[in-house]
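Dear colleague,

Thank you for sharing your sequence with our group. We've completed the structure prediction you requested, and as agreed, I am returning the results in plain text so they can be pasted directly into your records. Please verify that the sequence below matches your submission; if there's any discrepancy, let me know and we will rerun it promptly.
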Amino acid sequence: MTQIQKIHYTAGGNPSHCGVFILPNGKDIEYIVIDHIEWREKEVVNGIEKAVFVALFKENPYTKLPMVLNRVNKERLIKLAGIGGFDLLAIKDMPVRLTYEPTRIGDGLRISKLPATQPMSEKKKKKFSDADMPAAIKFLKSGTIEQLEEYYDIPNDIREALIKKK
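Please find the predicted structure tokens below.
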């Protein structure tokens, strides 16, 4: 059975700001980094010029568009960042999770209350050192070398030594 890709109806046209259509198959974006927040006096949103806060994201595979921050998203950002209401523009390099929530006026792209979770493939691996050897040997009694390599960058000679000590 072929699986149909879900694409939100608002994906058509030429959007100026990101919306729920950026969610892959309607699922959460678990990790996206807000580069910074801007206050824009004359931003055209849905054909209407208004003053708004917008979040600009670091390079990512989901969108190049800014996100207009409505009241709910501003409040969630303030809470997640642990800052005061007047410090919104101070947010920089902040990872968030984006999700879908129904709103009274339609489908809403929201900053999730859940924390962002960075995929293991994007996390920086720790360089393996001699101090890590005892813990690694202990770990290998119940785990695999591949699991260990998800967290550590292990040189080949040390990898072979760990396999022998297992």
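Summary note from our side: The longest helix spans residues 71-81.

Kind regards,
the structure core
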